[in-house]
Amino acid sequence: MERRAFIKKAAAGMAVGAIAAPAIAQSNPTINWRLASSFPKSLDTIYGAAEILSKRVAQLTDGKFNIRTFPAGEIVPALQVMDAVQAGTVEIGHSASYYYFGKDATFAFDTSIPFGLTARQQSAWMDQGGGKQLLREFFRDYGIMNFAGGNTGCQMGGWFRKEVNTPEDLSGLKMRVGGFGGRVLQRLGVVPQQIAGGDIYPALEKGTIDAAEWIGPYDDEKLGFNKVAPFYYAPGWWEASAQMSFYVGIKEWEKLPKDYQAALEVATYETHVTMQAMYDARNPGALARLMKNGVKLRSFSKPIMDACYKAAMEVIDEEAAKNPKFKKILDPWRRFKQDQNQWYSVGELPMQNYLISHK
Amino acid sequence: MERRAFIKKAAAGMAVGAIAAPAIAQSNPTINWRLASSFPKSLDTIYGAAEILSKRVAQLTDGKFNIRTFPAGEIVPALQVMDAVQAGTVEIGHSASYYYFGKDATFAFDTSIPFGLTARQQSAWMDQGGGKQLLREFFRDYGIMNFAGGNTGCQMGGWFRKEVNTPEDLSGLKMRVGGFGGRVLQRLGVVPQQIAGGDIYPALEKGTIDAAEWIGPYDDEKLGFNKVAPFYYAPGWWEASAQMSFYVGIKEWEKLPKDYQAALEVATYETHVTMQAMYDARNPGALARLMKNGVKLRSFSKPIMDACYKAAMEVIDEEAAKNPKFKKILDPWRRFKQDQNQWYSVGELPMQNYLISHK
What we know:
With about 350 residues, chain A is α/β, with parallel strands linked by helices. In chain A, about 50% of the residues lie in helices and about 15% in strands. In chain A, strand 1, helix 3 and strand 2 form a beta-alpha-beta unit.
């Protein structure tokens, strides 16, 4: 810009006083980032969270800090978002870290550990219980800084072509189930498959798999699983909650002006509230529609839950015995979880149970 | 600023490029607001939420939008924060709207209705279930715009000098209990008292009151109630959750530049996550300490819970019959609640109950 013109604009900006902000911020640096999401655009809840982030950050920086969101597969495949951030292919990703469980089981603490924390407990652990610090230390080795950005709440146990009543019924079942849950189920004879969201339906339809877990009624309904597997089980004990996170390349983060960093960080909190709220507000209606369309709702039997719990504790302990990074987080996480459940058993849970008894 | 100096500064700001933001934003308008909190400084959770908001807004606006926080009593008494915002004495308040239940019972929807929504359900209702729109319409008549800003989770049922086992034991009890809960308990013979946090202890000590509810272990411990009333009851059914909100004068809101509005709005989301997380992370330890100091933990008996539930439904229906504003919100709120509890009974709550069984 020519010098005189700049003065003129700046002066104009000053004159209008309280409503001058947009004019002034013109000289803030323009920064363009690309965000790779692990989710398809059709999942407006979970993909939508990244769009909310992008919109808010732009608004807070007068459109100067642009984060363009890309659904799974446009820049990188769904399950390679973390790698893309690590490699610097994209500056930021939105994903579930347990997709990267194969690299290191420690990743799962950022999303969900089988029979782990509820959504609210996960938030408390992350924000005020030391979880963020522990996980950031872990992610640093990947050149990544993590920010909690959404939760689904307790997920469903998935779609089954046939009923499962006993732990024995699980044996030989080919099931789409992510990372940690898969390893636990393997111990009960399940053959776990890691398949991205968009590829589950055809696999279930062809009978390549016998069962598939995805998220919950609202998302599952869109993917149409009910047409090919009528039994819908609860709860998804491998995801008492599932936290999504934004993964930012540390090098890119450090290049940001301080107020852009603040804008990005604070916007992750908004998505954290909004994504959970979207799921909670939309799941009930979706479940009602699914039931009307003949879906058969089932609960995992106590023998199945107990067998899975036992297997989960074994797998967790074995991992801790051989993986010091995992153990370093597991120990304080377990203490936190125990304290939470003790506290929840006093008032929160009796209250919720009482409310449900009057539903 | 002298013209030449301004050019120099502006040019300097441009030269440093990506890290120039603080220098540039100098020409944003400086806006100073005062925030009146309904809570004492000693409650670092709940008063702390307002400080988090203030800090973040300043950071997002390069220190130009200043919200100075004042604890209860410094500008206005704890229970007059809403009035102060309405009158324009302060630009923003942080309070619990059910303190203003005496003006209109409809206020309670913004905090808690007896046997109402859990914290997560309240967030879902507010953010994605139509609650925010309904409440903003109601608050508009008071010249106020509301923003959810924190939740305590399910509160405790309070401190009792003597045990209460049957609904009859409640009769004649003088109890500090806010708004709606008080009116319900009145039906069971309780004499409710509305007393600000700081004044509860002396009243309980002198025996002016027989019982007092406040929040939960972490806050209650600080106020020392255990020294004067040993029986600590759960759950606080009048507060299955209690949402705090920021109340902004609409006239002041409209004077803000758009990006300051965005900064304030997004910062409320952060406090919403952080306040709940602070409570969840700190309550378990506080309860353990209280128990070590001889506090006797009790659960309200089923007959007491049922009598209170029945009385609550009567009071709610009576209010709806005579108060169209209340009824307008109640009807959709009830449908939302029913759907939520139906959905929670499928997976979320069975999962939580299973986790607790292994605590």
